[in-house]
Amino acid sequence: MIRRYVMGISLALLIASMAACRSGVDDDSKSSSGVSEPTASASDSAPASSSAIASGETEPKAPGSKGFLWRVTGGTNPGYLAGTIHVARKDMYPLDPDLEQAVADSDYIGLELDLTKVNQLALATLVAKQALLTDGTKLQDYVSEDDYSKFEQLMKKSVGIVGASAFDQYEPWYAAMTLESLPATKYKETDGIDVHLAKEAHETGKTVIELESAESQLSLFDGFSEELQQLYFHQTVTGAATASIGYKQLLDMWTLGDLKILEAMHDSYVKEGRQTMGDLFDEYDNGLLVSRNEGMVEKIDDYLQSGEAGTYMFAVGSLHMVGEHGLVAQLESKGYTVEFIE
Q1: Per the domain annotation, does 171 fall within a domain?
Q2: What 3-state DSSP class applies to 56?
Q3: Where is the sequence biased in composition, kind Low complexity (predicted)?
């Protein structure tokens, strides 16, 4: 099964938190995965990309985190790329001095979305527009009976009976996205890396640029074919028991800031995706990574070549950075020099 905890959109955690709040349930009183904590060891269920972390040999020992930072030159304006994650632990702060210095040196901070400015009422209205079933059908009409039963049990344990039944009126992609994001609410009391950078930018008077919109991020999922939505839903309910392990590995990976581990994680994502999703993986990958990367690169290139004078930092999900369609490779193909800062 594809390990999707390395994926996701910046809105997903906020949407999951909204679902938990609507149910009136205190997430901290529940298992972070919505089910009993798995008894399998991290190494038993870890993807190959995280084997070094899962072994415990390279787990971070001291407070602070390195993250992923690249210097970009060759444009009219200098810039940085920073690979982020949308969650964080308290012990991941302070951030690496090189990363903090790059933020300080930048006049503009580009993010997927500025989550500090998201209007939750407007977001709820947008979700209703994009995800609600309005033709009289219900969620169980689109997924298998077994998958629906598993989903219902998982959601009852995490957001209560009322919360679980509320998802009957939503499309499979939304139900699945919420379920797979619920383990991340365990970390909601600590700002994710992208939120931290947004707050720091606002506090220091920098200009924050949004490379995407809430509507565009939700449209990616809403545009999935019915067949892909069914598979996405199936894989999410099947893998729910080990999701919390995956998030820990993701956080450890970012804390270490080892580029080889990030690249291996991307390779594993592609390999596992092709093995478990078959021909549908191309549709999934194009929606979640490839097409988004192309859109981001177009905007980044424009800012670096013809934007207002200044230094630009573009901080988006780490997996967007690597691979043949990653931001690093695409900017290099346009003639930029992109140097990873060790």
Answers
A1: no
A2: coil
A3: 31-55
Compute CA distances 101 → 255, 259, 306, whole Å.
17, 20, 24
Is pLDDT above 90 for 232? yes
How many residues does this entry show for the chain?
342
Rg (CA), the chain: 19
Alpha-carbon distance of 74 to 79, in angstroms, equals 9
Q: Is 316 helix (H, G, I), strand (E, B) or coil?
A: strand
Six token digits for residue 80 = 């940085």
Q: Using CA atoms, how far apart are residues 265 and 252, in angstroms rounded to an integer? A: 12
Classified as helix, coil or strand, 315 is: strand
> Distance between CA atoms of 62 and 64, rounded to whole angstroms?
6
Backbone φ, ψ for residue 138 (5° rounding): -125, 165
**Segment (H or E) for 63:** none
**How many structural domains is the chain composed of?**
1
For residue 116, give both structure tokens. Answer: 């500090």
Mean of pLDDT over the chain: 86
pLDDT at 72: 98
CA distance 41 to 86: 24
Domain-embedded: residue 211? yes
Provide the residue range defining the domain that includes 213: 4-24+45-126+191-220+245-340
